[in-house]
Request: fold
Amino acid sequence: MAHEDKIRPGTVITEKNYENYSEELKKLFTPAYFITVSKGIKNGWITIPVVKKRDYPLREGFAKATRNNIGKFRVGEKNKIIGKWTSGTPFPQPETPEELAWDIYRRGQLADDFEVWRQKINTIMTFKTLVVKDFLVPGCYNEKPPEPFIKRNCFQVDWEKRPLYILEVDMNDKDYVYGKRVIYAEKEDGTFSLYGGENYDQKGRLWRSWTQIVQAQDIKTLFRCWWGFLITDHLTGHSTMLPMYPKLRDVLVPQEVFTIRGLLRRAK
Reply:
């Protein structure tokens, strides 16, 4: 049976049946996901309940801006984006790795503090592989996932198969801390949201990764953020869980709160 058929909605992968699915999981997980999540399953910390792929609606303003960007931009020499970008994703249907890189970059989800990619696109980077592949990733929740949510260095959540873009970013800079990044971004919903990132050192070794990204979406505002994620140093074996607790279904904070006057007023 093909791996995409063996692991399907209704499947629950546990410590007891892990070996029956391990080869399929290698194909459905990113390399870093396979290392971190498999450890949790084999140790009995978590199970992997697979659910049907869900649709996550976009905020209308973002969706409209993205639609209006079709055909407005191109990537010129030295990775420069041509056109004045203001909002939405510049390339709703990327046709080159360079266009995909700008889509991910403009989404502002590249926090190098969290070891994915807070680094400006520069003139010497090269981008490879505009591949789309199904991966098994954590689901998106519009309320806090059921407790216990955190189990050791894993999250106990539902998982679903989603098509993701794979983008390789070669630094081409021997003085930079990383030699290459591999980034996994949402394909279907138009957000190019990140589901994972792997950073390789100058020797080509998997060094730091960003995995188990559990997303959150407010059902009223459609604002999307995270419940948490895992950062791993694969050379030392150290990992850090970053659980988050966003306020969903809450009243939006007025824009004036974020002015200097508004911040000073709240600080008193």
About this structure: The chain has six helices and 14 strands. The CA atoms of residues 70 and 93 lie 8 Å apart.
